UniProtKB/TrEMBL annotation:
<dbReference type="GO" id="GO:1990281">
    <property type="term" value="C:efflux pump complex"/>
</dbReference>
<keyword id="KW-0998">Cell outer membrane</keyword>
<dbReference type="InterPro" id="IPR051906">
    <property type="entry name" value="TolC-like"/>
</dbReference>
<dbReference type="Pfam" id="PF02321">
    <property type="entry name" value="OEP"/>
</dbReference>
<keyword id="KW-0812">Transmembrane</keyword>
<keyword id="KW-0813">Transport</keyword>
<dbReference type="GO" id="GO:0015562">
    <property type="term" value="F:efflux transmembrane transporter activity"/>
</dbReference>
<comment type="similarity">
    <text>Belongs to the outer membrane factor (OMF) (TC 1.B.17) family.</text>
</comment>
<keyword id="KW-0175">Coiled coil</keyword>
<keyword id="KW-1134">Transmembrane beta strand</keyword>
<keyword id="KW-0732">Signal</keyword>
<protein>
    <submittedName>
        <fullName>TolC family protein</fullName>
    </submittedName>
</protein>
<keyword id="KW-0472">Membrane</keyword>
<feature type="coiled-coil region">
    <location>
        <begin position="323"/>
        <end position="385"/>
    </location>
</feature>
<dbReference type="GO" id="GO:0009279">
    <property type="term" value="C:cell outer membrane"/>
</dbReference>
<dbReference type="InterPro" id="IPR003423">
    <property type="entry name" value="OMP_efflux"/>
</dbReference>
<feature type="signal peptide">
    <location>
        <begin position="1"/>
        <end position="22"/>
    </location>
</feature>
Length: 436
């Protein structure tokens, strides 16, 4: 069941803590791979997830750098000097003079006041870190959704292959029955030609289905970070889904636009660029700073120095550089703001489409199950009638095609419904199964 709820900001480092230890590969290719195991592998091995985690760590380091600008610096220095040079005394003698020893000192400095540049830099990096945090979580969720989609696609292909193989077997059975009836003179010999053609077509469809399985499994392996030399085991079927009870579309839109991590990340980027713009505006005008400094030389002689400097800097002429930089920062902020506005509109359309897809696929799944049950009953009746000579080959072939269509439709409806639920979670910013 789909549950939509407001969620607080997620610390992605904690969310991705499971990435530290790798899950071992299955000991046997006969061991089915469950969706839960596939999701765990993707969290541990997918390169996009690992890269997003590194980007977040880099953003946190940049925040620490901007915070360090508010703190004093203390720099001890120790230097050992060995100096030897020749001196011309003017009387023909040129003795060598050598000196050596340690020179030690320490200096401390602290910017006590500025015109707000440090504060703006810190606020910009904080917003950028929040954007990276939300972006990392969105990358994780998008990757987990890709795993759901590709796992279901591979499972769908796997199940459709079974249907195709079953249909090929049924076609061979019908061919055998037709041959028997021709031998006893119950039907004309030309009936064998139709049965043979149908059997061969079923074999072709089974081979095509096998190709679909191979392609889907290869795509899934790449997303999971599966070793290329290791074959992917059979996939474990998904659990039967429950019928969702959805809130209204208006409620879903409200939650989704507020909670989607990609939109949260975009909002924080806009805020970060706004502070960068404010800092550029400030740097284009007069700047005031107050700095304190203390120096202490310990050896070879003891010296002490203290200073406090109040500095006013006025950019009288720089060729328009500072104003151009401020204009660039302003336009970057405007560009990000307009992009975010369009991203919100696109996200709203995605949420509405995903919401409708869940409702539609729930109804479709129920109809597909009923159609499959009816087709199975119909085929059994047609096959028995043909065996007893009470129906024609065309009746059985028609029933077989109807059964194959119903089986394929049921498989498609099941996997489309499961994926629609996961997609709705993704586009509304809700946790994806396998995330925690």
């Amino acid at each position: 069941m789909v549950r939509l709820r407001l969620v607080s900001a997620v610390a992605v480092i904690a969310t991705l803590a499971t990435v530290g230890s790798a899950t071992p590969w299955p000991d046997s290719s006969d061991q089915p791979l469950s969706l839960e195991a596939a999701l765990k592998l993707a969290k541990e091995r997918n390169g996009a997830v690992r890269a997003a985690l590194a980007d977040l760590a880099a953003a946190r380091a940049r925040t620490h750098q901007s915070l360090a600008a508010f703190l004093p610096t203390l720099t001890p220095t120790a230097q050992y000097v060995s100096d030897r040079h020749q001196v011309d005394l003017g009387d023909g003698s040129k003795p060598f003079v050598q000196s050596e020893g340690w020179a030690t000192s320490a200096s401390a400095s602290w910017r006590l006041l500025d015109s707000g540049q440090r504060q703006m830099s810190y606020m910009a990096t904080r917003r950028a870190e929040a954007a990276a945090d939300a972006g990392a979580l969105q990358t994780l969720r998008s990757t987990l959704f890709d795993v759901h989609q590709q796992f279901l696609d591979a499972l769908r292909a796997q199940e459709l292959l079974k249907v195709s193989q079953g249909q090929a077997e049924l076609a061979r059975t019908i061919l055998d029955q037709t041959k028997v009836r021709v031998q006893v003179g119950d039907v004309a010999r030309k009936e064998i030609l139709q049965a043979q053609a149908d059997s061969l077509n079923a074999q072709v469809q089974a081979l095509a289905a096998k190709t679909d399985v191979d392609n889907a499994r290869a795509t899934l392996k790449a997303t999971l970070g599966w070793e290329a030399a290791t074959s992917l085991p059979p996939l474990e079927p998904t659990r039967e889904p429950s019928t969702p009870k959805l809130p209204t579309l208006a409620e879903v839109l409200k939650v989704g636009l507020a909670e989607r991590r990609d939109l949260v990340s975009a909002r924080r980027r806009v805020e970060s660029l706004r502070f960068i713009k404010l800092r550029a505006d400030r740097q284009a005008g007069p700047l005031l700073s107050l700095d304190a400094r203390y120096d202490q030389a310990v050896s070879p002689v003891s010296l002490e120095g203290r200073s406090v400097a109040l500095t006013l800097t006025v950019p009288f002429f720089d060729g328009g550089l500072s104003r151009a930089q401020a204009e660039e920062a302003k336009q970057n902020w405007i560009s990000a703001l307009r992009t975010f506005e369009q991203e919100e509109r696109t996200a709203g359309a995605e949420i509405e489409a995903a919401y409708n897809a869940v409702e539609t696929n729930a109804n479709r799944l129920g109809a597909a199950r009923a159609a499959l049950e009816a087709a199975q009953t119909n085929y059994q009746a047609a096959e028995e009638a043909q065996r007893l000579g009470a129906s024609t080959l065309l009746d059985v072939l028609t029933a077989r095609v109807t059964l194959a269509t119903a089986q394929s439709g049921s498989i498609q409806a099941l996997h489309d419904f499961v994926l629609a639920e996961v997609r709705l979670r993704l586009v509304t910013g809700q946790p994806i199964p396998g995330e925690a």
